[in-house]
Write a sequence for this structure.
């Protein structure tokens, strides 16, 4: 996807799109707003995904003094003109059909819901999270790191959604930077440590020499996309029930190999927590401590290499997932791997 899609010509983009914004010195490059959360009058409970995960992460970070309403960065909603940098018109139009959205969200009951409600209760939150990912990419360049409390929709490509992923926020994050900041960002590495294969962006960047992909995933679970595997530079399929010792060794060894082969201007870290033991969809056996150690290693690697890093929270299907993500972010701060302005928090 090195070339800008022809659809970009359908809109007059400003050189500084509305999704990008300057943040104040007191703000922390952690991106979130309450509109991230899905509320379908209870229908969201039919899906194993915790639709309040993002709100709960933010709440814990606030309770521990890392964030507040003043210091958090609140993104704008990704609009059609932003989405068209990557997505096909035909695909975006298809989302006006509740049946199509039900297939992507894997909630059959959505077929019976008027699309106007689907747009408001599900697609709008996803567009805010997508806007958050795009913004976080630029903040990482400016501050050295950024975290979007949402995002990480790695099963969605430019023309096809799936696995609860409606918008291709990872592809959008990268393509927006390539388009608007070509002098700052020429090469990007994606390190995907969600339990599932990131087949969406893998298809999008199949012909790109500017994007290098490392994907560590459970080979026995969804999506088993054989075609997309051909476009992974460091392809690491692992077995179900892989636990801390083996998992952390595999991640460390392969990231070191990747860093010798490719030097990026930005690292996009898809930090799924569905690797946690007991996750019914991830099928792995990594402990809470293992997740904290994994995130710490990836951030430490980037800081030592002086590579800006943007983290997306991606999958995680247990109620305790929010607590683990929040504790991991707090651990990153305590280890000095992320910082606050003038160190005036926590």
């Amino acid at each position: 996807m090195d070339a800008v899609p022809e659809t970009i010509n359908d809109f007059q983009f400003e050189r500084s799109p509305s999704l990008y914004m300057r943040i104040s010195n007191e703000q922390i490059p952690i991106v979130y707003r309450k509109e991230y959360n899905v509320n379908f009058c209870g229908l969201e409970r039919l899906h194993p995904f915790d639709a309040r995960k993002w709100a709960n992460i933010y709440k814990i970070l606030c309770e521990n003094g890392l964030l507040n309403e003043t210091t958090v960065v609140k993104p704008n909603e990704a609009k059609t003109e932003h989405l068209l940098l990557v997505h096909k018109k035909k695909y975006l139009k298809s989302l006006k059909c509740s049946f199509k959205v039900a297939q992507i969200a894997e909630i059959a009951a959505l077929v019976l819901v008027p699309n106007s409600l689907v747009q408001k209760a599900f697609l709008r939150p996803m567009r805010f999270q997508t806007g958050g990912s795009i913004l976080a990419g630029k903040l990482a360049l400016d501050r050295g790191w950024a975290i979007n409390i949402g995002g990480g929709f790695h099963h969605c490509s430019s023309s096809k959604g799936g696995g609860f992923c409606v918008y291709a926020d990872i592809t959008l994050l990268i393509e927006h930077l390539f388009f608007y900041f070509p002098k700052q960002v020429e090469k990007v590495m994606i390190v995907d440590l969600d339990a599932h294969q990131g087949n969406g962006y893998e298809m999008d960047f199949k012909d790109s020499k500017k994007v290098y992909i490392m994907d560590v995933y459970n080979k026995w679970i969804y999506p088993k996309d054989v075609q997309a595997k051909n476009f992974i530079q460091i392809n690491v399929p692992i077995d179900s029930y892989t636990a801390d010792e083996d998992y952390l060794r595999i991640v460390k060894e392969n990231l070191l190999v990747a860093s010798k082969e490719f030097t990026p201007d930005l690292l996009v870290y898809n930090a799924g927590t569905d690797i946690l033991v007991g996750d019914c969809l991830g099928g792995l056996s990594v402990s809470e401590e293992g997740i904290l150690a994994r995130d710490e290693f990836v951030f430490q690697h980037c800081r030592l290499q002086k590579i800006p890093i943007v983290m997306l929270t991606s999958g995680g299907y247990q109620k305790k997932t929010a607590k683990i993500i929040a504790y991991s972010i707090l651990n990153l701060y305590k280890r000095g791997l992320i910082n606050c302005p003038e160190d005036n928090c926590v």
User: Anything to note?
Assistant: Residues 115-143 form the longest helix (29 residues). The chain is about 40% helix and 10% strand.
